[in-house]
Automatic annotation (TrEMBL):
Record-listed L-methionine binding positions: 432-434, 485, 600
Biological pathway: Amino-acid biosynthesis; L-methionine biosynthesis via de novo pathway; L-methionine from L-homocysteine (MetE route): step 1/1
Organism: Andreprevotia lacus DSM 23236
Protein name stated in the entry: 5-methyltetrahydropteroyltriglutamate--homocysteine methyltransferase
Residues annotated for L-homocysteine binding in this entry: 432-434, 485, 600
Active site: 695 (proton donor)
Gene3D superfamilies recorded: 3.20.20.210
Ligand binding (Zn(2+) 1): 642, 644, 666, 727
Domain Cobalamin-independent methionine synthase MetE N-terminal: residue ranges: 4-310
UniProt family annotation: Belongs to the vitamin-B12 independent methionine synthase family.
Amino acid sequence: MTIAHVLGFPRIGAQRELKFAVESFWRGDIGETELAAVGSTLRRRHWQWQKDAGLDLVSTGDFAWYDQMLNTAALLGALPARFGFDPKALTLKQYFELARGNAAQPALEMTKWFDTNYHYLVPELDAETRFDGGVDWFFYELAEARSQGHNVKPALIGPLTFLYLAKSKAAGFDKLGLAGRIVPAYRRILEKLAAQGVEWVQIDEPILALELDAQWRNAFAPIYREFSTAGVKLLLATYFDSVAEHAPLLASLPVAGLHVDLVRAPQQLDALLAAWPQDKVLSAGVIDGRNIWAADLSAKIEQLSAAKTQLGNKLWVSASSSLLHTPVDLAQEDQLDAELKGWLAFAKQKLDEVVVVQRALNEGRGTVAAQLAVSDAAAQSRRTSARIHNPAVGGRVAALTGADAKRAHAYPVRADAQRAWLKLPLLPTTSIGSFPQTREIRAARAAFKRGELPQDQYIAAMQAEIKLVVAKQDELGLDVPVHGEAERNDMVEYFGEQLAGFTFTRFGWVQSYGSRCVKPPVIFGDVSRPTPMTVEWSRYAQSLTSKPMKGMLTGPVTILQWSFVRDDQPREQTCLQIALAIRDEVVDLEQAGIKVIQIDEPAFREGLPLKRAAWDAYLEWAGRAFRVSASGVVDSTQIHTHMCYSEFNDILPAIAAMDADVITIETSRSDMELLEAFGTFAYPNEIGPGVYDIHSPRVPPVNEMLRLIAKALEVVPAERLWINPDCGLKTRGWPETEAALSNMLQATREARSAI
Ligand code: GLN
Ligand code: ZN
């Protein structure tokens, strides 16, 4: 029979129980026993859900107190020596110190898990790294699931993915050189699983979806040959993109099965089937593990029918990736109407979807006729609903011309027009937008949202805040002030709430890192802007000062990137719709006399596809969307954009093609190193490299900023250099904000007089 399974389930809990328990533990409010009990309850519940849904195997190894890569390091015993911990006796407290740092040591570095918004802790390797075994939590959880009567498939992050994603301080360190040590460690784990009677082990090697160089590709066969006699059946799991380019390798690897992502890369099924060995399982990930849409189940069954005929019981059904990237349970959403809810599926609902596809394949569609009828109806209503399809929006996107994605004149002409009225001093100063969000601001916003604070009082409270922020900036002497963004809880949610085509969930939380979760907006339909979103705040702010007020918007790519995006049209299309909505706002701001406008795009780089071969196409449409949002204004209106910490090197042509008049970037923590590429590339427009780190309350002294300004001046001519902090100041307090900005302005004055 075709087996139904998933690669992993979210661990945070439908009510974010794990987050709250872990944070209580950190505060010392609960002890280890209580924390352990919460973890155990969650695991038990999630396994039971998998069993109740009808999955043949339940997943273990997907639970982590903080992160799955750190868990793998803890299992292998490969901890950075700098902490001085005994890997075999690692305590929970020490585990959290690795994740969060302690008085003596900074935490492990954190970075994005492929192209998801999940962040893993980066293992540290050096020539001394050993994999002699660590804590046995992995085996404890396996035993726990089995004692509850489950048929278990434990999951491990594979050795090559572990090494590939790890880092070493030593330049040119050969991570693969550690294979000789890590392979026996994995083999011991597999043998131990075999000894315990485990039949299937899932081993995740998502790096197979990247463009691997030969050295890494060639490492698979010998390593997996080592594992093939360990006594367990291995299901090699890949996800997030196609692995078809490795089809011959994958068909010949001595593993019992392969899992592939048929949501991100449906086309790879045919390529793999063309030469699939009869004795090997192919696990088809057809239910989307990255998004919140209910699957069109009939289409999924159809998608697999040829594979079922060819492979019979060797075809398995699953979700595309671990369900870690989806919220837990849609049943809790009591504020969505039935139609919208019918379009959605969270992790728990996706378990049912996997099983419906499996049963249809095993026993015929008739056995799941009722479920298919519901799914067909939802798919049909998504195709036709007037809530989703707004012909006016589609028409506007279709009518976009080349001129709509281009400013009237090139930057040098615009710069003259802008200089003529802005009359800014050399090295103009500005900020990135937000100012400290005090407890009072948050309280007022929350009370307004709950309906407890009348609108006029809310507006008065926000205006008072704007007044204060503008006065402070005038006092400090900032050349281009902002209104401070007090009315925004989040730079995407604020716009999503005002745009048609968006909705919000109550409990749609997804783990971002550790105990940190995000609740992305849901873009379900054509996006349009019913009314101006920021104009009144900016107009009010401008009325308080004679300086040019900068209007603040979030860009189309970032709004797209930080939302759950509809899957019934290309992302590019959705992005252009958002771009048009932002364009309308930009034009309205200009009409209202706001002629410096910043369109933030911190997630621009994040959207890059996993495979480099697909980069150009993405950069092309993402850049176009930005320009559509920015190009409705006259030459003299100055468009800024902002990006946070990013590797810009390899995408500078695309950044330049965005053609913002001014770009501000985060550079202080890299000691201006990130800026060097802009110099080498001869970036043509204006740049504001951040001169101080806003992530810490530390107030950098004047000479420190002066040194960074001097470094920047080596790369960017003074006429095109702006002075600003690295990013928004909303997480900072007022005292350090004032002190740091005051130092920044002093440094600027000194730099000006030295030019
Ligand atoms: N304008 C935003 C702010 O200042 C930018 C935030 C960001 O770059 N992430 O808060
Ligand atoms: Zn930023």
